[in-house]
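Q: Could you write out the predicted structure for this multi-component system? I'm mainly interested in how the pieces pack against one another.
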Amino acid sequence: MDSHALTEQQAAARLLGALQEQDTLSCEEAQALLPSFVEAEAAGEDVDAASEYAALLRHLDICDDCAAMYEQLAEELEALTSAPEALPQTTLTPPSFFTTARQSENVIVRVLQGLRRQFELDLALPRLAPQLPTLGGGQSASLFTDTLSEVSGSPLVSISLIPSEGGADVLVAIREPAAQTRWQVQLIVGDHVQTATTNAQGMARFSGVPVTDVQQVRLMCVEAPGS
Amino acid sequence: MSEPDRITLHATWRRLAQQYEWKLVEDEERFLDLAATEARALTSGKASDYARIAIWRAYSTLLYRGLWQRENRAAQEIWLMCARMALRDGFAPAEAEELAQETVTRALAKLHDVRAPQSMITWVLTILRTVRRERRQQAQHEQSLAADEQEPAHEPSDPTDLTQTVEQRVIGAALQAELRTALPNNLEREVLLRVVVWDDRPRDVARDLGLPLHRTRLAKHRALNRLRNNPAFLQVLSHIAGDVPPNQH
């Protein structure tokens, strides 16, 4: 259509249409798409014609927060990839982020550097998986129990697996002798991720964890804010 | 369109690697193969733009893998970039390091959220932005969005003439007058008319106005927001569009 030949009524209708566009994305969904969007745009892709970005573009027309994030990301990406002196070349010494505190056949414990105390455990499962069918009736298998003296406060950590229909429940207990700290615990099993915070007794429970086809679970534990 | 050649990719890689102290690449030829694959996935634009984005995306993939495998070097390279960005933005060294630390920590906690490992570094920038904003809010130094919106910068040298031409070619006197009142900013008005009414591509509008593409999109965003929040204008617009009888509302 020749847009130059629009009547005033048609022009107004187009404007009205744009003003009445429906936003079908949440900010979280939009922000997940933004990185690849700004990269495609910076590479010269015709993102306005790409169907995968249509909803994001509508969202950016409407949402102030996401539009501001888009603006900053686009400017940062341009500066960081184009300008030779985009950042000051100050000499800085990064910290060591992952300190392997202990390592055995079945468990790796890492203490993570951060503003709050945090640690993680990689637990091997291959020997546990065949046992699961025999663990009916709610019997649990201990995956790990020990005091982590490598972590400040020396928390006692206990992790158990309880078979349940369609997977297993994972029970995590983190207790400290001298404090009632709450911990945010993230359980990662393949693509499956669950997060929970320990209760007043130091317990967190993860239900319906799909453990049958995996060999490892990862537990990231971060001291909850305000603990 | 032309795919960046190996020499361009190599030169771009060396530049960015030196700039950001990227040292995760063990086999350079294999890495350049990965970057070439990324470049081929992009289908339009200039070769020089392809090269820098392709390298950026290929290296993001390495960083993503490195974080999953808990390689210190991967986390440290991200930390370094974040700390330097914070220094550039005026944070004190100790504060910049804390900010970088918090960004890496959050990135590790949210790593499973990453949909495209190729966009890992850009994704980390979104986290850094959030952390930085929180810090600024704490310190009550955040600049208000309203002030930013009134920035006259980035407008073309003579936007008034351009806008008048666009308006006269596109819309009638009634709509023109209403729009001028509702949208006094010439740039916003022109972008809105060209993108929404003419259906021009934002990239073409940006080129014609000599603006970065994201500025053009933001001008459209702001124009639409102003009009949405103007019930009187919406009523007149509905009337001109024939949706609403003149005496309704």
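A: Regarding packing and overall arrangement: The two ends of chain B are 53 Å apart (CA to CA).
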